[in-house]
## 1
Amino acid sequence: MRRMILPLAILAILSVLALLLSVLVGSSSLPLADIQAAIFEDGDALAKTLVLELRLPRSLAAFATGGLLAVAGALMQVLLRNPLADPYVLGISGGAAVGALLAMIGGMGGFIVSGSAFAGALLSTMLVFGLAHGSGSWTPSRLLLTGVVVAAGWGAVITLMLALSPASRLPGMLYWLMGDLSYARTPWYALAILLATCVCVIPLGRSLNVLARGPLQAAALGVAVRPMEWGIYVAASLLTAVAVTTAGSIGFVGLVVPHMLRLMLGNDQRLILPACALAGGILLTLADTLARTVIAPEQLPVGVITALLGVPAFLILLHRSR
Amino acid sequence: MSTSFSLALAGLVGLLPTLAVPSVLAAERCAVDDMDRKVCIEAPAARIATLSPGATELVYAAGAGEKVVAVVSHSDYPPAAKQVQSVGSHTRLDLEALVALKPDLLIGWTTGNPSEQVDKLEALGLTLFFIEPRDFEGVATAIERLALLFGTASEGDAVAAHFREGIAELARRYKDVAPVEVFYQVWDEPLMTVNDEHLIGKVLTLCGGRNVFGGLDRLVPRIDIEAVLASNPEVIIAGGMGEENPQWLTPWGTYEHLKAVKQDNLFFVPPSLIQRPTPRLLEGSQVVCEKLEQARARR
């Protein structure tokens, strides 16, 4: 038990620090005193708006999105027993992207784009579920293959839409595809779902540990394999759908954060899943802070930063682990 | 019968100048394009293809609208241009359709057309004239240079002169007015603006505005709301998609301490009037100048 509490406590402290940092810095430089005043008393109106209405919701949204993606990635890796699985491997981001881009082509913005993305993600989930389920037997490899092919189909539709769209709409569409926290409106439902998932999934950690070793062992040890697998699939899909709806398809976090944590902490799902929620959140919060400050007031796409931060960190860990 | 006769007659009449003036070279018309290349054609262009919506507008403005045989998609102004056959988008030309229309002069877009396709067109022996005005004078001379190549100089020169005078008039009127800090919103998601090098930035300067993001390096920088709030502009001008403004200005209203909101200076300017380097830019500039003048009156 103590072996689990220490890393989680460290990650929790780091989470608070990352969130604090992201609220303290931005494209405009606010003195620390102003920020303090904005948070704790009636400070300057501008500082209050910047900190409480712009930076804080965005930081929380980044944290929630990163956490959702990392947990979804960890679940997918357990479900598919494939280290290359990430939240997007089964085409959820593709479906969401088609939904979002359709709304953008139609000249919509804001909530309609998010809603359309969520609908696309659910549609893709159900499509893959239905096709993989089919009539015959069902295996993770069948699910993976179905998902990968559906994802390829979405990819083609996205390319087609980009090719046919008027040039003036392209920047918005490309930024959405790269993933971008400026689309995040409210962090609350993403945070709530992240928390709810952690509460639901952590008690299942033991069963997940068994399942990760293979369905036969799991069945032999009394795990209801089929309902468990579908449960993981639905949960991971929902998490991904919420993440993609919040901030577009941000890559890399869902693939690498679970692996990084496994290299450091071992492969115990009871520890890995909550650790993913925190570490994914930390990575994306820091990446987004960099994205909006490196060449401020200009903005960079956050997906670039997650990869630039994550790739070397992951490679160093991998190299050391030998 | 009568048709073929008149056609033959037209052909003869067409030949007449050539017969009358033996030195064809003397009739050659040359102009320097925006890639600094001297382009010469032997006779006024009769079949023109425009490879950007802006070029379409400029060719019509130069008085050669009825000679346009091919345009690219989004060539929506003047309305007559919508009736002309489209040969794809400016980034992906349908070379086959374009060549089949046998244009004798192509009006290209330096940074907009893919260079592979441009090279191919030149290898096929077609003549390209590149246009990409970067300032007001560039628009005026583009019309003059095009009109020269089209043999419509009288019409084109008048349009160019009118444009030049209009801009000069605005420059005179707003030379010494009190500066107004302006934020111009090109796009809302992601939030994008322009710098001073951009034609829209130049319109703001012309009207006595000071672009709060004028000093940024990129022509169309992507910024965040925080930067706009921190710069606290007195005026916010938004473009939009097409002619409607999809509520881009509404969200700014929630930031009550913003100077532009306090003084009710959230303006919409139809993007088609200022986002293309064409004679309509004069009309757009007049609208922008009026808005800034309104803002001064509300101080």
Note: The CA atoms of residues 87 and 95 of chain B lie 8 Å apart.
## 2
Amino acid sequence: MSTELWARSIEELAPDLRAGRVSPVELVESTLERIKQHDGTLLSYVYLAENAVESARQAEREIRDGNWRGPLHGIPIGVKDNYTTRDMPTTAGTTAPDISFPTEDSNAVARLRAAGAVLTGKTRMHEFAWGTVTPPTCNPWDVGRVVGGSSGGSGAAVIAGLCTAALGSDTGGSIRIPSSICGTVGLKATFGRVSRAGLVPHTWSLDVAGPLTRSVTDAALMLNVLAGYDPADPSCQDRPVPDYTAAVGQPVQGLRIGVCRNHFFGRNQVDVENAVEQAIRDLAAQGMTVHEFQVPYLEYGLGAIFAVELPSSTAYHDVSLRAGKTQHFEPDVRTLVEVGRFVTGADYLKGEQFRRVLMEDFRRAFEEVDVIITPTTALTAWKHDAATLEIAGEQESVLAASWRLTYPFNLTGLPAISIPCGFDRDGLPIGLQIAAKPFDETTVLRVAHTYERTHDWVARRPEL
Amino acid sequence: MTESSKEPPLDPYKDIMGVDFTPERLDENLQAFADILKAIRKLRELDLTEVHPAIIFDPTDGYGDGTMS
């Protein structure tokens, strides 16, 4: 365990904070100093909280007085800039003029504050959560490479020690992609598990709020706070919230791994494919059984997610589009918002019909398996100026390749986590994706933790 | 001849899709949409006539518990 406070995980820090062995003020000051040293290069934050130290002092007083609120009390947490906040500006990554957002806490932020977390600031994101690059944020493993996106600032900040955990949001992979590219843990819970009230919408029927963390246990601790019913989000489900940390450490012997051989395998970078195949063998060695299957309809998934995402985003930005404000968006995002007009209503509904077909295919698969394991991204961090890469012998757009393996779990709403499962020949992290049945986050976490504790990937840090 | 037939013909972009781009911008967007359209055209090939969309309308939404009997 590192002695540097900024380098420690929530599960390492919480007992010491509770017992008074670590001061929340020292922890936050350590984190702020780390930001001061490195964020001039990494550019992971767009705004630093002015009251972070004061919030830490309050946490220190409360803990000293016996009012410990839980494992997040005094923990420095970054907030993706599409969550509205009462005391920090929200931009959703845009610099377009005359676009503003409410100055009240989103549900997730309010939950973090109630749990005693110290918010460090707003992390950079790809504009309006469109895109998987998050310019100009740099990857801590190699500053010449991207961090993924759209929650790229959160990914960079977590792995570099510029916060202990962070919030992200995931519409087609935007938590899991930067987690894979940066080497963090990223959890997209089941659609409807975490409230999106106060999260700037991208696509109402796909968006999921969730955490990026340094360990699986930390993800469970964050989900314990974030999960729960909120009538302000019409898609949020009123279901019991288990203690997700109870899944951590539970044996996996007898659980069944599903390996979907089409779509998810055969079109990945060699090091990615090899690392994930090894991870599956490693989990089998822990007593899990492996079952291979196919979902042929996945070949229609790209059309479906385009048909759903594009017009949804365009509908959200309709007033801006008609007022000519989209000309001030970044060129890639402007184009996507504008071309959403070309998707017909019939295409949109066909996308929604297709989702039911895909959901049924995965439901049938889960009659035979408990989790589905895939790579998170087909490629590791690419260079800032790369538009295409050769993957499995074919040239492919890095943007297309980066979300190909994540969006199926947005179309189906299933819970999915990305955890580190090795490094490629250039020393860049590789992500392993584990998905399960709806609202079965406990099995996702159970399997993920078993893999994590039998490897040392999460202990590795980029040298800055 | 009906009254409506005297109206000028509808512009497929401006009137039907509600977009009012400059000709240059329209060309750029159509070019960018070409790859996306390939994927959507593939989706259109499917016969999903008997499949209900994943999105389900709930008329009780907003009433809250106890209001509906």
Note: The interface with chain B takes residues 205, 231, 234, 299-300, 302-304, 306-307, 310, 322, 335, 338-339, 341-343, 347, 349-357, 359 of chain A (CB under 8 Å).
